[in-house]
Amino acid sequence: MACEVEVLFTLAELRAWRESAERGVPAPGESKMPTPRAGALRSSSVILPHEERAGSSRESSLSRTTCVVFDVLRATSTIVTALAAGAAGVLPVEEIAEAVDWRRRRPDALLAGERGGLRIGAALTGGPEFDLGNSPREFTAARVAGRFIVITTTNGTRALGGCAGAAEIVVGSFLNLSATVPHLQSRRREKICLVCAGTNEGAALEDALAAGALCDRLKSIEPETELRDSAALARHAFLHARENLAEAISRTRHARRLLSLPELHDDVAFCLRQDACDLVAVSEADNVLRRQT
Ligand code: MLT
User: Does the residue 254 lie in any domain?
Assistant: First the structure.
């Protein structure tokens, strides 16, 4: 069975996709045509439009989907870096209060994350300072090896949380792109959904390009992979930009903000080091992201 790949570019799209998958109804823009009756005449060479659309709604079911989440600048790059540096696990949470609560339950936990790009301090927690921000360069072996980390970021950890209930949640980034491809292939899922965390409520080019790079790898290795229009769009964008990825990304809104801050400037180049980390990061039953290979 050919795997179908879809890309969601914003958190709003993720919410809409989730809602439709949970209700078992077509996502916005998909047909509401009924599923064809069992035994209805089928042609082996022609897919009728209503069959294709009914199939789309069936396959949007979360439990048959692998989600790969991208927040290239910077949350998923940071998580991959932390695991490469030997962190025991990274728990993504959406709210600052949840992270602070984890500190009470697990005093050994390191708290990490940002708001407005900057490390979370006492002004936002009403108490403890976070140990780390969201700069991947902070997550060295000396700081994180063997440690359990709780992280909350503006978009990245919300995107990870929004995939709850999927068959598998994988952490995507340019850093571990090549390692992630064979993992996805070995799972042989019906559907792969590439979830771009974006910036605030909007899309982010850097996430779309990383998703496009993954689409390109999957399609090149298995030509029968079915790229939905969103995936084809991301792939085209990647192929167009691939020779000058760093330049294209340095012009994005979020990159420009990071580049303007001396202490975060180098994060942009750090996050674009393709295949610097040979690891697959997956969410386990306790929602903790751990290294698989
Ligand atoms: C996020 O989760 O929104 C980002 O990772 C923001 C950042 O660069 O810190």
Answer: yes
Distance of CA 97 from the midpoint of ligand 1 (Å): 18
The 10s digit of each residue's pLDDT in 195-216 is 999 999 999 999 999 999 999 9
Question: How many domains in the chain?
Answer: 1
Residue 65, domain CATH: 3.90.1560.10
E strand residue ranges, 99-180: 110-115, 118-119, 148-152, 168-172
Residue 94's CB: how many other CB atoms inside 10 A?
A: 16
Stated pTM of the model: 0.88
Q: Which two tokens stand for residue 275?
A: 């295949």
Is the pLDDT score of 36 beyond 70?
no
Q: Within a domain: residue 17?
A: no
Host H or E run for residue 231: helix 229-241
Mutation test of ligand 1: which of 74, 77, 157 has the most ligand atoms closer than 8 Å to its C-beta? 74
Report pLDDT digits (tens) over 16-28: 998 888 777 655 4
pLDDT at 256: 97
C-alpha dihedral, 236 to 10 to 162 to 290, nearest 10°: 50
Reduce the DSSP state of residue 74 to 3 states and report it. coil
